[in-house]
Amino acid sequence: MLKNKTIVIGVSGGIAAFKSAALVSKLTQAGANVYVVMTDSAKQFIAPTTFQALSRNEVYTDTFYEPDSTKIAHIDLADQADLVLVAPASANTVAKVANGLADNMLTTMLLATKAPVVFAPAMNVNMYDHPATQRNLQQLKAYGFQVIEPNAGYLACGWVGKGRMAEPEDLLELVQLMCLDQTVFTGKRVLITAGPTREKIDPVRYLSNYSSGKTGYALATEARNRGAHVTLVTGPTGLKPPSGVEVVPIQSAEDLYEEVTKRFNDVDIVVKSAAVADYAPEIVENQKRKKQTDQWSLPLKKTRDTLKRLGELKQSQVLVGFAAESQDVEFYAKDKLERKNLDLIVANNITTEGAGFDHDTNIVTVYAKDHYEKRYPLASKKDVALHIFDEIEAYMKRSDVL
Ligand code: CTP
């Protein structure tokens, strides 16, 4: 995602500088061209050689080190940057930038750059809470810089409170989102359903299925990474939802029907990967059922089919359904595509090795309304999500609904 992007990481003095080494490593692995600028204090915590090895680029520490006479180093770096992230941002560096001081390579470059700038402060809780620091952080925001709040927890100085620098994984995600290129999904509103539903029997029991939610969560991440505004309507999964996505938790097929149909008018694309119960107990007991009899028959009633309803309500939305089948996959998938008035359907045979519920992989075939179809080989659910959005994009281009 970060190919051809130049990210400048400013490292100021703080023990969290060790976390920046992990960040630089992750950014480089994600394809970014990373330059590190260190203050003198930062060098007390970590050696420039570490950053040089991880970024495979020279590390800038001195404003007046000008190895190339055709350029002025701090201006050249400021101009090249697609994004500058100061991590850790010490109270001193925050104060200097807030007041426009430029007394080292980092602060000089920050004054010169036109790229988006993000600060990830890290310091002792009392330093962070100090009115001077708070005023300076407000000032940075007023300049249009982004400030990533530190996390609360145990601090290296022994205090417990707010001051821990945001984690490298979260900073990586933020950088990736801020560096997104324009795609056909930029600004599009995408609704994704994920996971199983739970149909209540009594206060302690429910009917459900083996859906893990992994595909739906991967789809939500992929849609977000392509610049869409994502709503994730999710059954109980235990998975961590991707950041930057609106999460709507549901339990039953009925909850899902309500939450999805009421949002349908306001979305452009719906991908219905949730494994919705087709039947739910006719009566939900208020009290726990006691085991008085040898046998127990539980009358079930059909749930409302959300996807079918969306097919009826559909105007310009692109509607994508799923068909997890154990036999006659193509026949049932094409039948659902037509019967539910879908644009695309993603089919898989749950009896095939590596496919189906609660695995990390799947083998899918995508069938489109315009009779286009494509079979994909075994792939991780992350890659399946990528293929599905490629297919949605191709379909939107073919049918002129961009
Ligand atoms: N679906 C839904 N609401 C339901 C049942 C299913 O929205 N009450 C959606 C699923 O999210 C999936 C698609 O319909 O995208 C296909 O689900 P599936 O259970 O395979 O289809 P059914 O029409 O219920 O067909 P059958 O159970 O007979 O195979």
Automatic annotation (TrEMBL):
Superkingdom in the source lineage: Bacteria
Keyword annotations: Decarboxylase, Flavoprotein, FMN, Ligase, Lyase, Magnesium, Metal-binding, Multifunctional enzyme
Region entry Phosphopantothenoylcysteine decarboxylase, spans: 1-189
One of the record's GO cellular component terms: phosphopantothenoylcysteine decarboxylase complex
Catalytic activity: N-[(R)-4-phosphopantothenoyl]-L-cysteine + H(+) = (R)-4'-phosphopantetheine + CO2; (R)-4'-phosphopantothenate + L-cysteine + CTP = N-[(R)-4-phosphopantothenoyl]-L-cysteine + CMP + diphosphate + H(+)
Gene3D superfamilies cross-referenced by the UniProt entry: CoaB-like, Flavin prenyltransferase-like
Organism, as annotated: Shouchella lehensis G1
Keyword tRNA processing among record annotations: no
Cofactor remark: Binds 1 FMN per subunit.
Protein name in UniProt: Coenzyme A biosynthesis bifunctional protein CoaBC
Pathway entry: Cofactor biosynthesis; coenzyme A biosynthesis; CoA from (R)-pantothenate: step 3/5; Cofactor biosynthesis; coenzyme A biosynthesis; CoA from (R)-pantothenate: step 2/5
Family: In the C-terminal section; belongs to the PPC synthetase family.
GO molecular function, one term: metal ion binding
NCBIfam families: coaBC_dfp
Domain (DNA/pantothenate metabolism flavoprotein C-terminal) ranges: 186-394
Chain intervals for the UniProt region annotation (Phosphopantothenate--cysteine ligase): 190-402
Amino acids binding CTP: 278, 288, 322, 336, 340
Residues covered by the Flavoprotein domain: 5-174
Role played: Catalyzes two steps in the biosynthesis of coenzyme A. In the first step cysteine is conjugated to 4'-phosphopantothenate to form 4-phosphopantothenoylcysteine, in the latter compound is decarboxylated to form 4'-phosphopantotheine.
EC number assigned by the record: 4.1.1.36, 6.3.2.5
Entry keyword Flavoprotein: yes
UniProt xrefs under PANTHER family: HOMO-OLIGOMERIC FLAVIN CONTAINING CYS DECARBOXYLASE FAMILY, PHOSPHOPANTOTHENOYLCYSTEINE DECARBOXYLASE
Cofactor(s) named in the record: Mg(2+); FMN
Gene Ontology biological process terms from the UniProt entry: coenzyme A biosynthetic process; pantothenate catabolic process
Record: active site: 157
